[in-house]
């Protein structure tokens, strides 16, 4: 299906459908939509239609079926979509956010050794945080198998459930993204044992990026360029006015989910996330390697998953240096 | 006379079971209908408050009645709540209506055509056990990100119940009535319309009730499929309340869902009472 | 009008406490305009060991009366006293449990007595034998003919071993032969057990064949209009001349009663007449 | 004789409707039971393959029958599949059994005690419409991360159906049978046991069937609640298949769920047939 | 044994095509050991416009025979031909639709004829009037007495306006008076419409009062054992001496037939005897 691509290659489509999650790590989209940046860049010929998803699978289903043309997602769904479609379905055209992931534990725990025999939650078996935790544990000489056994018991469960089980003492820690990390700290007195940024070169690793349907990219490169322009402007806005952007994002969240984040959680979470146009390709590839190493992913060839040509053109036009897809 | 009077013999529960319903005054009846509900609500609230006061869990994990009701009151004061309610109810009604239509046709065909029944009869229950999320990819493939995708999931959830209710009713139609209908010259469609359908009505109604429950649950899941901007829905609210581990929000949404479920049950109850009155079943158990 | 009848009925008790006593019993179905006065100011006594037959046009309130006595329904007015005894009621329909075999249906009547399973089965077989259905115990109700179902229902009622037996047209669906045989059986059991029987029938001869008294009900509202004592010596035979004669008399009276209501005896009265004309 | 014979008059569908089931040979009957199913499966596979061949969607979005069946065969060859199946089925059976017990007790109480019915009767349907996910937080609070939490969700999902089935059955028990039971000396519990329960059996069975569907769906959702070490489950597999956008995996899991649903329906079908045979309902519609 | 009877039955047709013809009809219920031969090699003709009454002990297969003729069941052997005519069957039970009012129940019989709603209602009212239930049209079946329900069922059967009318103990639950009135009505309608009637009853007098022929069935297996022509001039009266006399004769024969089967006429035969002794 070619969804919104109802015109010939090159011509602007009547509509572009963009997906994102009502989630603080998707602040680029939240701010961009709230401030009308996408609409502005797309111009009058093309209308923006946004779709919000509750999680990665729904977003990928929508991309696969041609129901959206571009969407913000995390690294896992992107790798999935790439490998399941054998490199045919999507391209990553820009990065959006980095960081904002922590291992939060009960106050008593201060060293990795103390995690022995403890239960640690991750958002989902085999997702980036799950892989990161497992890899980190092997580095520290602790064993954890994919079935929940070993020195440390890894309990994959939804983040909301983590909030609850951490409070009731069912788990001893969690490797989770924002805003859940901040909530564990602020609400349940959790302590940060690991800031995942510390594990990566330049303290940078991808948490959100923008993917586009390959077909759409082929047919409407200009429209994608306009999307990327808006995307870059949104990130620039966030960088230049973090406090204001945080409020904008929170207002958008309120609109979408009916519930805004508490100010202290919002501030702390926003501070821990870096918004960047760089998809930090190296972290994606390394993460995939780690996943393979801990036995959660078959060897996957990520070569060609990035198409940063448009991004680099946009950056060049703004006089910024190009970004590598390696 | 020392003999026991019957009034005493059938006292208590049995009197209740067998005595005919005497029409009491309107006020008395209203009161009889209200106090048990009021009492039940009061008991639940009290127990809930007690649990919270016991302090087993922090309030942000398990909100107390006060917090929850405040949250609910807050929501009731906002236009968004009513928008969400309208959107969800509209979807539920449309989806359910479609499911009834589909279920009726499928149930009617399957119940009377033997090879078809052999072929796909069991499939109906099979489909019923299929969780909604399994249909999501197909729904999106077929309908894209549209209302239709939601309705598709709702129909797939509810239609099997409706069909199964009808089939059960048909199977348990008293043979003597079928024979009577046959002798009156009714065949196939007319037999269906004049004999089988009315005779199956009680069972069909039960199927509808179950179908509504399936439809509603499927809807709650399905509303996450397509989150349409500026069109809030109950399913979405439920999900986000949970996603954000927002205990008062979750409990408030649960109350709303419960209340809707109860109201719908009352509607079914009215239909059911009318039916039983017609069939002369109310006299004994009323 | 009913007062002398009450005395007449009460007179037959001979000082003994009646097994069943109805005093000024009325029963109205429904409410408002659609209401129907089924029984009006009925007084009736049945002495222990007495066999009372109830006659009346179709729809005059006989079944209603039995279900009031059985306690299945409450009278709208008046008072019903039943001496501290077990009551059995044989319904106008067979009212068998479709999910049970014939034998199990009869056994249900024996459950209340706390008999063992084997004992129950043996007893049920006996009762089925009495109604000439020996060997049908393992069938299910739907495999029987109408008359056979009625006999199972009779076996079940007899098996209850009650002191008061209410029977609503128990032999209506039976051929004359089987009926005669069952008359004998019923009479024997009634004698042996010293039962009080209230027996509804449309067959006047049957009433005379069996009853100590034949009570005639009028139509809509049902009232006791006549109470015929039957003094013929027992055993009686349905086709005997004496029975035929008395049956003829009663039929005359019945006919007159039905005629009094006009050619269409079952028209709904325009208004319920709570106290009669 | 030029007159129409009856054989012709009741030809076709009506003969099927009204003629008594003649017991045919074992082989003939087996064949009559098999060919419609075989045909249905063949038709579905053919249609599926056609859709895939038409190429509307790439294979990675909507896998064809070959890919799916290969994937399924692959799974069937692995021990993990059987572990998952065992775990899930055990949970389903235990949860369902609990739900039946709870549903029976609640249904029995609510159907016969009038104030209770007024108070909580409608709540049953209310609870039935509550999506499983709404119970997750409570389940965890009450039972922690354990099997019990899963069972809790399953019971809450299925028990209302069972109770509602029973209540419907009780409400539609023919008054004449209640009266007969009363005259035989049955009161309250014994009346329940000897008259009302057996008379409600058809409706109760229908309720059980719906209850199973609810139990199964709740289980599929609930199995995500507590992912326990070394204990794979079907619900987990379904979820992961979707999570990983793994179309063949998802379809294979759906087939497994369908087959289980169909088998369970067959079990219910057997019970139902036995019941109808007993009640003498098979003669006309068989 | 049945061969001469067949001829006897066939002889009455006088060259005309019979409305109903049964030839060597057998019906077995069930299978194997539990099987029961309900009808065995029955031959029977009913001429157009003929009124045939069927007598027999309880459970001898009368209802089975009617449902075979009505086409509700298929014979196990033999052949049933019904002249291209509409058949109405009044069941042994009332078989009313509980969800419909009394009037609507009767109207159902008129639907097949494509009458308009108002016309249907008017006609239904007429038929209810005939069975003396005028004014009860808006009640529901459960609000009627047993005999009243039976009359509604009669009204429904009459309303069908069929050419062949099968009636299974239609007046079993009625008092003698109402019965007499309905006999007259039925006879009138039979005359006017030139109906072929097959009428099951346990009341021998009723059979003689109404029938052109009275056919006697034996018990288990059901066979035609005798075919009495009734030549009394019409109009006849149930309580007339002639009717009583002929009824007496038939009863004698019936009694002999039942006796032949022993005191317990309804014992299950040890083995099904497909071809008779
Ligand atoms: N449940 C009911 N609701 C309303 N009216 C009723 C009900 N039961 C009986 N009636 C009415 O009460 C009157 C008496 O009915 P009942 O069944 O007692 O008559 P019956 O004497 O037994 O007649 P039959 O000989 O025909 O059985 C009838 O007119 C009937 O319509
Ligand atoms: N559906 C059935 N299944 C098995 N046996 C049956 C079935 N219907 C009738 N029978 C048997 O067939 C025989 C004849 O039954 P039928 O109903 O024709 O008798 P009937 O002459 O109408 O008796 P009655 O005067 O009591 O109504 C009986 O022995 C009965 O047990
Ligand atoms: Mg009666
Ligand atoms: Mg019969």
Automatic annotation (TrEMBL), chains B, D:
Tell me which GO cellular component terms the UniProt record holds.
plasma membrane
Q: Does the keyword Transmembrane helix apply?
A: yes
Tell me which stretches of the chain form a coiled coil. Answer: none
Classify the protein's membrane topology as the record does: Multi-pass membrane protein
Location relative to the cell: Cell membrane
* CDD domains recorded: TM_PBP2 (cd06261)
Per the record, the major location class is membrane
ABC transmembrane type-1 domain residues are 85-268
Ranges annotated as spanning the membrane: 32-57, 92-111, 123-143, 149-170, 191-208, 249-268
The answer to whether UniProt assigns keyword Chloroplast to this entry is no
Spell out the Pfam families in the cross-references: BPD_transp_1 (PF00528)
InterPro entries, per the entry = MetI-like, MetI-like_sf
Keywords carried by this UniProt record? Cell membrane, Membrane, Transmembrane, Transmembrane helix, Transport
- Please name the GO terms of the biological process aspect recorded for this protein, alphabetically: transmembrane transport
The record, for PANTHER family, names:
ALKANE SULFONATE ABC TRANSPORTER-RELATED, MEMBRANE SUBUNIT (PTHR30151), TRANSPORT SYSTEM INTEGRAL MEMBRANE PROTEIN (PTHR30151:SF40)
**What is stated as this protein's family in its record?**
Belongs to the binding-protein-dependent transport system permease family.
Name the chain's protein.
Answer: ABC transporter permease
In which organism is this protein found?
Nonomuraea montanisoli
Automatic annotation (TrEMBL), chains C, E:
Q: What SMART domains does the entry give?
A: AAA
Q: Which UniProt keywords apply?
A: ATP-binding, Nucleotide-binding, Transport
The residues that cross the membrane are none
Against Gene3D superfamilies, the record matches this protein to: P-loop containing nucleotide triphosphate hydrolases
- Please give the superkingdom of this protein's source: Bacteria
Transport in keyword set: yes
Would the keyword Transport be found if you checked this record's keyword annotation? yes
ABC transporter domain residues are 20-244
MF annotations from Gene Ontology: ATP binding; ATP hydrolysis activity
Q: Which PANTHER family match?
A: ALIPHATIC SULFONATES IMPORT ATP-BINDING PROTEIN SSUB, TAURINE IMPORT ATP-BINDING PROTEIN-RELATED
Please report the name of this protein according to its UniProt entry.
ABC transporter ATP-binding protein
**Which species is this record about?**
Nonomuraea montanisoli
Source species taxonomy = Bacteria, Bacillati, Actinomycetota, Actinomycetes, Streptosporangiales
């Amino acid at each position: 299906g070619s969804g919104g691509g109802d015109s010939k290659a090159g011509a602007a489509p009547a509509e572009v459908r963009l997906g994102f999650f009502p989630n603080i790590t998707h602040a680029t989209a939240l701010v961009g939509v709230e401030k009308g940046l996408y609409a502005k860049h797309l111009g009058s010929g093309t209308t923006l239609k946004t779709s919000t998803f509750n999680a990665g699978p729904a977003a990928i289903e929508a991309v696969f079926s041609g129901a959206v043309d571009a969407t913000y997602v995390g690294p896992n769904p992107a790798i999935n979509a790439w490998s399941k479609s054998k490199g045919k379905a999507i391209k990553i055209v820009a990065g959006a956010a980095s960081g904002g992931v922590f291992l939060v534990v009960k106050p008593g725990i201060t060293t990795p050794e103390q995690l022995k025999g403890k239960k640690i939650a991750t958002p989902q078996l085999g997702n980036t945080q799950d892989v990161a935790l497992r890899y980190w544990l092997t580095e520290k000489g602790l064993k954890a198998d994919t079935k929940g056994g070993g020195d440390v018991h890894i309990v994959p469960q939804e983040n909301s459930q983590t909030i609850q089980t951490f409070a009731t003492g069912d788990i001893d820690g969690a490797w989770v993204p924002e805003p859940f990390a901040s909530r564990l700290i602020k609400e349940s007195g959790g302590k940060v044992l690991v800031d995942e940024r510390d594990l990566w070169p330049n303290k940078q690793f991808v948490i959100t990026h923008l993917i586009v349907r390959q077909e759409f990219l082929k047919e409407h490169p200009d429209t994608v360029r306009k999307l990327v322009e808006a995307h870059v402007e949104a990130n620039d806005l966030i960088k230049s006015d973090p406090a204001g952007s945080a409020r904008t994002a929170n207002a958008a969240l309120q609109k979408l989910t009916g519930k805004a984040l508490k100010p202290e959680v919002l501030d702390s979470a926003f501070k821990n996330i870096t918004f960047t146009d760089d998809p930090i390709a190296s972290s994606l590839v390394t993460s995939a390697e780690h996943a393979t190493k801990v036995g959660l992913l078959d060897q996957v060839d990520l070569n060609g998953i990035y198409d940063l040509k448009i991004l680099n053109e946009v950056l060049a036009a703004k006089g910024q240096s190009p970004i590598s897809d390696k | 006379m020392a003999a026991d009077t019957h009034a005493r013999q059938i006292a208590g529960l049995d009197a209740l079971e067998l005595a005919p319903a005497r029409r009491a005054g309107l006020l008395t009846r209203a009161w009889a209908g209200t106090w048990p509900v009021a009492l039940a609500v009061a008991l639940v609230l009290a127990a809930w408050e007690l649990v919270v006061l016991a302090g087993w869990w922090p309030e942000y994990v398990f909100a107390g009645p006060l917090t929850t009701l405040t949250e609910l009151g807050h929501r009731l004061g906002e236009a968004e709540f009513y928008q969400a309610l309208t959107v969800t109810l509209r979807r539920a009604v449309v989806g359910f209506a479609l499911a009834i239509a589909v279920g009726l046709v499928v149930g009617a065909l399957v119940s009377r055509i033997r090879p078809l029944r052999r072929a796909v009869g069991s499939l109906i229950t099979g489909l019923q056990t299929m969780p909604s999320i399994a249909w999501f990819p197909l729904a999106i493939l077929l309908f894209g990100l549209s209302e239709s995708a939601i309705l598709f999931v709702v129909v797939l959830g509810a239609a099997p119940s409706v069909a199964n209710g009808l089939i059960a009713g048909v199977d348990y139609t008293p043979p003597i009535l079928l024979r009577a209908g046959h002798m009156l010259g009714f065949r196939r469609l007319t037999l269906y319309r004049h004999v089988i359908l009315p005779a199956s009505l009680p069972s069909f109604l039960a199927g509808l009730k179950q179908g509504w429950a399936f439809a509603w649950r499927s809807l709650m899941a399905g509303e996450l499929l397509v989150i349409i901007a500026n069109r809030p829905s109950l399913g979405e609210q439920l999900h986000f309340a949970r996603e954000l581990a927002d205990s008062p929000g979750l409990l408030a949404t649960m109350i709303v869902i419960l209340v809707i479920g109860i109201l719908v049950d009352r509607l079914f109850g009215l239909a059911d009472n009318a039916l039983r009155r017609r069939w002369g079943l109310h006299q004994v158990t009323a | 009008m009913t007062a002398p009848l009450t005395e007449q009925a009460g007179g037959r008790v001979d000082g003994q406490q009646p097994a069943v006593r109805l005093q000024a019993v009325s029963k109205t179905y429904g409410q408002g305009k659609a209401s129907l006065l089924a029984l009006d100011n009925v007084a009736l006594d049945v002495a222990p060991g007495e066999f009372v037959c109830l006659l009346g046009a179709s729809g005059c309130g006989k079944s209603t009366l039995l279900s009031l006595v059985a306690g299945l329904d409450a009278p709208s007015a008046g008072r019903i006293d039943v001496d501290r005894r077990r009551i059995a009621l044989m319904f106008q329909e067979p009212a068998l449990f479709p999910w049970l075999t014939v034998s199990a249906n009869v056994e249900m009547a024996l459950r209340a007595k706390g008999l063992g399973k084997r004992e129950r089965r043996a007893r049920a077989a006996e009762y089925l034998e009495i109604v000439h259905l020996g060997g049908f115990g393992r069938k299910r109700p739907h495999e029987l003919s109408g008359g056979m179902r009625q006999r199972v229902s009779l076996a079940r009622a007899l098996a209850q071993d009650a002191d008061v037996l209410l029977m609503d047209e128990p032999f209506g669906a039976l051929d004359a032969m089987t009926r005669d045989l069952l008359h004998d059986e019923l009479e024997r059991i009634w004698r042996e057990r010293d039962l009080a029987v209230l027996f509804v029938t449309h067959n006047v001869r049957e009433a005379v064949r069996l009853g100590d008294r034949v009570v005639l009900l009028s139509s809509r509202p049902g009232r006791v209009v006549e109470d015929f004592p039957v003094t013929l010596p027992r055993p009686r035979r349905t086709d005997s001349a004496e029975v035929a004669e008395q049956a003829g008399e009663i039929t005359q009276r019945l006919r007159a009663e039905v005629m009094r209501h006009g050619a269409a005896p079952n028209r709904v009265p325009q208004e319920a007449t709570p106290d009669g004309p």
